[in-house]
């Protein structure tokens, strides 16, 4: 593999402008808050619709009256994005399980034709950024380069993107700026070149410490490159980095999984993401394998692997703060928490989704269509100038409510029931609690309190009784998280009966 050297690169202008106040080598110690790109609406299927009994026993639970729908819409519209996701779609080749919008460029990434493709794409991306008219002048607090394999894009092109972004939207000095990076695409000097541009976090897709499994997945790197990449990360002293692994791979044994977990911990990342393999339509894996059938692990094995990851990583000092994510103190992904908190986010690039003023908008996922879309959007005659998607209707109150349930229940912070009642009404909150009660009695749901540990079904009474003094609800780890789809489906069914 050839890795370009970029030690002569100059910091991008936005980073130079903030040098005096930024200490990129000092990890943040505060507890801070991408989809997950692998999370999302598609995870939940609606189950049976349970009876929602009249909630007389809830009369002692003071749930605030909701503001009017108009107020809600106004609040939603006032909440302006301070985050941006940028899609960089290039990969050496396409992994057998991947359904992301990706351009496979081959293993010779320094070839002129590949570099030219990247330059052309970055030009297009910058055109999109420049054509957007931001809604306000609030600077960006998080910037996330996802892909694809963004670490294939040379630092001089990354500098161009960051400069354009800073010029048009401004990036605040303490912003979290994340780059997804794969082993075999960078070394320590290249990583330092990215850091010189202001990138202060990387998310590295290792996926497995088993050479055979890396091959079976069609990963473009081998184990030797994984260990070299870990060395490069340590040599670079980047303040925060995440290591991604995947469970549920074909022929993954429990021994191999324990080995991967141990090696992940030995690498000492500040954050670990543990994704369970989803067999996506249209991928080679979908042609070769059926979910739940050999050689993929069955449900019991999948559950055992999930529980082993949760226990092993927590024993090693990682907080299990979202279904698939673990962090050392102060190293939660701020960008991903924007998604999980249903906060707005700009999107740029091939197939990128944005969520602005309550409206979701996905850009075309094929390169020719994206190119045409940017040309139309940036045209002086364009009727859709401003922010893409604003001409379409916002998500309904019901859609926002279901998103809130699904995304917030996937986090350790859980669902704040008083805010939920305030936003969506006391009746919705009571119905949600009624649907959660049997799972609380089974130990899958916990009451969340301010300043003390969550509580389960003790002599303190029902979930409703405990919530009188609690802040909200969360799913228990690991069993509640494991059954999150089932539990969330029950809440959805209860809420679907709302007038
Ligand atoms: S490296 Fe990541 S984005 Fe690229 S093909 Fe593999 S899984 Fe997909």
Question: Which characteristics define this entry?
Answer:
single chain; about 500 residues; alpha/beta; pyruvate-formate lyase- activating enzyme; nine-stranded mixed sheet; four-stranded antiparallel sheet; disordered N terminus; binds iron/sulfur cluster; rSAM_horseshoe; Coproporphyrinogen-III_oxidase; Radical S-adenosyl methionine domain-containing protein 1, mitochondrial
Element layout with pairings:
Elements: H1 13-18, H2 69-78, E1 83-88, E2 90-91, E3 103-104, H3 112-131, E4 140-147, H4 155-169, E5 171-181, H5 188-196, E6 201-207, H6 211-216, H7 223-236, E7 240-247, H8 254-266, E8 271-276, H9 284-288, H10 299-315, E9 319-322, E10 325-327, H11 334-340, E11 346-348, E12 353-356, E13 359-362, H12 367-378, H13 397-409, E14 415-416, H14 417-424, H15 426-441, E15 445-449, E16 452-455, H16 463-467, E17 472-475, H17 479-482, H18 484-496
Parallel strand pairs: 1-4, 1-11, 2-3, 4-5, 5-6, 6-7, 7-8
Antiparallel strand pairs: 8-10, 9-10, 12-13, 14-17, 15-16, 15-17
Helix pairs in contact: 3-4, 3-12, 5-7, 8-10, 13-18, 14-15, 15-18
The chain binds iron/sulfur cluster (SF4).
Iron/sulfur cluster (SF4) binds next to loops.
Report on this model:
- It contains 18 helices and 17 strands.
- The chain is of the alpha/beta class and 499 residues long.
- It has 2 domains: 13-30 and 77-340, tm_1862 like domain (pyruvate-formate lyase- activating enzyme), CATH 3.80.30; 41-65 and 414-496, no CATH class.
- The strands form 4 sheets. It has a 9-stranded mixed sheet with strand order 9-10-8-7-6-5-4-1-11, sandwiched between helices. Strands 14-17-15-16 form a 4-stranded antiparallel sheet.
- α3 (112-131) packs parallel to α4, α3 packs parallel to α12 (367-378) and α14 (417-424) packs antiparallel against α15.
- The model is unreliable at 1-70 (pLDDT under 50).
- Residues 91, 94-95, 98, 100, 102, 147-149, 182, 205 line the site of iron/sulfur cluster.
- This is Radical S-adenosyl methionine domain-containing protein 1, mitochondrial.
- InterPro entries: Coproporphyrinogen-III_oxidase, Elp3/MiaA/NifB-like_rSAM, HemN_C, HemW-like, rSAM, rSAM_horseshoe, rSAM_sf.
- It comes from Dunaliella salina (Green alga).
